[in-house]
Amino acid sequence: MAANIGSLPKFLQRPTTYSGIWGWIVTVDHKKIGVMYAFTAIFFFLVGGLEAVVIRTQLAFASNELVSPDIYNQLFTMHALTMIFLAIMPLAVSFFNLIVPLQIGARDVAFPRLNALSYWIYLSGGLVLNAGWILGGAADSGWFAYAPLTLDQFGSGSHGMDFYSLGLLVLGISSVAGGLNFLVTIINMRAPGMTLMRMPVFTWMALITSILLVTAMPVITIALIELSLDRILGTQFFAPGAGGDPLLWQHLFWVFGHPEVYILILPAMGIVSEVLPTFSKKPLFGYPFIIFSGIFIGFMGWAVWSHHMFTVGMGPVANATFAITTMLIAVPTGVKIFNWIGTMWGGSIDFKTPMLFSIGFIFLFIIGGLSGVSHASPPTDYQQQDTYYVVAHIHYVLFGGAIFGIFSGIYYWWPKFSGTLLNENLGVVHFILMFIGMNLSFGPMHWLGMDGMPRRIYTYGAEYGWEFWNTVSTVGSYIIAISTLVFIANVIITMRQERRTDLADPWDGRTLEWSIPSPPPEYNFKEIPIVNGLDSFWDTKYTTDEDGNMTPIPQGVSNNNEEEVAIHMPGLSYFPIITGFGLSASAFGFAIYNQYNVVGLTIAILGIVATFFGSYGWCFEPADPEDHH
Amino acid sequence: MKYAKILKVILTTLLLGLSLACTPEHLQSTFDPKGPIARDQEYMFQIIFWAMVAVFVIVQAGLVYTVVKFRRKSESELPKQTHGNDKLEIAWTIAPIFILAIVAIPTVSMIFDHSEIPTNKPKIEITADGYQWWWGFKYTDENLNIVTANELHIPTDTVINVSLRSKNVIHSFWIPKLAGKMDLVPNNNNSMWFIADEPGEYYAQCAEYCGTSHANMKFKVYAHEQSGFEEWVKNEKNSANPNLIACTNTDANCTGLAAKGANIFANKAFSGVIRGQEVENQRCAYCHTIEGMKIKGNAGPNLTHVASRTTIASGTYDNSEENLTSWITNPKNMKPGVYMPTLNFEEGDVEALVAYLQTLR
């Protein structure tokens, strides 16, 4: 290994120290990467939210002319793409990064540099996806981009879909790398004694989500490669005139797209399954049922994709089959909800902000789940498909579900990584405003859809009678925006506070992450813990007799000695950021190739060179910076 | 918590009051079915809705009760550590299956019911072609053989079997009060059928996002009693104003504004702009058919009886002289992204064209 050092210029040799911004650029520490994921994703969440506010303002009144249809179409497309691929998924991955190694008693993830690479591809890929805004128009064919509207001959004349296909392609690499990393981490790096059935539920959901990521992303990758070839090289996969089949895209997209829905919701379910027991002072009710229903949901995610396509004319047999498989998903989902209520039953419920968001999650997710049953039935779906009813459903599931779960997690784990507590009063205001705003915004959409309002229309006439509820919905979206500002204010205020040292276990937690100081030292665990059961950290604080009566164990003064211990940690590296930005640069180059041939090709080649250089350096980098003396 | 509740009650009352105060017409409501297919679909929705309301009430009540009853009363509470209850959990795994059966059984039987076209009623075959962004309709039965656009006329109590075709992007054919939607997928031939019970004007709209002016791709369905339908068919089969058409075909010396318009329509070439691109040698007839003329374009809607329609621009504007004038003058202002060119007309051309089109009853 050491022999290769000479082949690298000095500035690319493995960095040994870090400070300031360079500390973030060369880091491979899962906690730092998790924090970068979180802040980037929240930034994109704000961007997507801003897009939503403009969309709602446009629809607030009949025949409103705030934005042109072409801008509107870009807004709703980019709103969905931003929220799904750049906000919710990365926020989930951020939690995987921050929490999973701590919950399983590991010092880092299995592949720390790969982890950094995932982040840099995500950041740069997110920029590629959004580059259209300043380069002649962003993606505008809807987030599921049904062929052949994605081809220029039918589109609005902008090249936005190039940024869609290539942006999502690189983001997919980030997701697969992340999924693979957590899959290996969870399987291989659990502390001694932590069998699979002693694993915290959040880690379990991370495991299932990782499996879905690794298996689902390749499907959309195929579709996106075909789309890119159609758009850049003029192949005919989806061109109807040449016999291309638009339904091929739909099947590929939804075979990915439905597992994707569970990729978005399972992490939130995992968070809720951590928060509820902690704030009820009770173990999770029916742990095995929750786990197996999660596995079943993940598995069934592969058997229901065509319920997005009931109206494409698949015929009665296929429609009936997919209707039944879809309805079956309600069973494991119901199990989870009942078990969550069972967890709180008989508990001592503390209404701290994380708990409020988790209870809000259950309340709203029930509504989203139930409306989902109504379009699992094709005869009713024929009326609901592509209307605001579906928009209401998806937002109850992804906003009321995923986002509420994520906020619950942010309030819950914030002290672990910052050594500060988010302000509780502002948290409650945030929750109440967001809950009201959410219902005011998306509740009326159920009615609008049943009243015949199609989705993705930039305008509607006053004669349809949709104006009143659209106005209400817009007001709701403003309340959501205000609640988000309250959250941002809370974060800013809290970040200016001094770190406290008494926040190692502020909520009387149950899982291993609460057994170490906040914020955790770089190596997480001074000694790798030995796990004797589910909630083994809890067992060090309380004894439980056979009837379930618990008694606190008197705790000695914690020996919170800050002495430095020499623990071998993965070295820092420049190569993840070089490789990541190289990949995205090549994607960007190809994305602008249709508009600026020479410039695009040059950037693409430079990107490919950077990618190869980064991977080469990565491979031959010494394991330790010390190796070279 | 208490204030939040009071606030919610006030808000809900306010909203309910407001919604009752303004009772608009529900032009595309799925709760107002006017034919058997839409009625069955609404019935199916009712089954699901009430089943789900029952589940909603029970589960949310359980949730709220639990949250209220087991709120923390003192900091030192040490609740019993229960890890689960297998019997209970198995019970609530199985119970939803029964509720789902209530939904699944009628669902499956309805899917298969609706896949069969009823044979005890007369039937009309129609082909609906989706374009960006308008609808073309062809009555393909031999005794009918009519081509029209954006307004579908049908007899009541008759099976309307629609073949759905598109050569561009995917559209979706949706008449909320008569039937749920079905997509028009290029290279995939779909069809659907429906029946209208009573005469009336039914609003309809493309439901699948199809590009810039997706929102402006509407159409209307007019259901007539048998006699009214036959009258409409009779009118459609004759070409409107054959003597004006004759003026365009020969060098006949016709006078009058409408005749001038007919001549412009058939014979005058213009330069113009289509979606930002300069084009030359455009004639109205290159894209629009008026039955009887020599040139029969089919890139745009058939205009043989355009004056008999109530709307223009695919259901987007009333068919008035004013709207027609601004449409012809600058269509992209009325329908963004439209494929109809903005032509460089000479003074008086538009006036003549409008005058002519208005004769095409």
Distance between the termini of chain B: 66 Å
Unreliable runs of chain B:
none
Q: What is the strand arrangement across the widest sheet of chain A?
A: 1-2
Straight-line distance between termini of chain A: 12 Å
Helical content class of chain B: 25-40%
- Poorly predicted spans of chain A: 1-6
Biggest pleated sheet of chain A: 2 strands, antiparallel
Sketch the topology of chain A as an H/E string, one letter per element.
Answer: HHHHHHHHHHHHHHHEEHH
In total, the number of strands of chain B is 15
Radius of gyration of chain B: 28 Å
Instruction: Please report the two chains with the greatest interface, counting residues with C-beta closer than 8 angstroms to the partner's C-beta.
Output: A-B, 107 and 102 residues
Shape of chain B: elongated
Number of helices of chain A: 17
| Percent strand of chain B | 15-25%
> What's the helix-strand series of chain B?
HHHEEEEEEEEEEHHHEEHEEHHEH
Note the total helix count of chain B: 10
Query: How large is the radius of gyration of chain A?
Result: 25 Å
Arithmetic mean of pLDDT of chain A = 92
The count of β-strands of chain A is 2
The best one-word shape of chain A is globular
Summed over residues and divided by their number, the pLDDT of chain B gives a mean of 91
Itemize the secondary structure elements and their pairings.
The complex is a heterodimer of chains A (629) and B (361).
Chain A: H1 20-25, H2 30-59, H3 69-103, H4 112-130, H5 160-188, H6 201-233, H7 246-280, H8 287-300, H9 316-344, H10 353-374, H11 378-384, H12 388-418, H13 424-450, H14 467-495, H15 536-539, E1 542-544, E2 550-552, H16 575-591, H17 597-620
Antiparallel strand pairs in A: 1-2
Helix pairs in contact in A: 2-3, 2-4, 2-14, 3-5, 3-7, 3-12, 4-5, 4-16, 5-6, 5-16, 6-7, 6-8, 7-8, 7-10, 7-12, 8-9, 9-10, 10-12, 10-13, 12-13, 13-14, 16-17
Chain B: H1 2-21, H2 36-69, H3 86-114, E1 123-131, E2 134-139, E3 146-149, E4 151-155, E5 159-166, E6 171-175, E7 179-184, E8 190-194, E9 200-205, E10 218-224, H4 226-237, H5 242-249, H6 257-267, E11 270-274, E12 277-282, H7 284-287, E13 311-312, E14 317-318, H8 321-329, H9 331-334, E15 342-343, H10 349-357
Helix pairs in contact in B: 2-3, 5-6, 6-10, 8-10
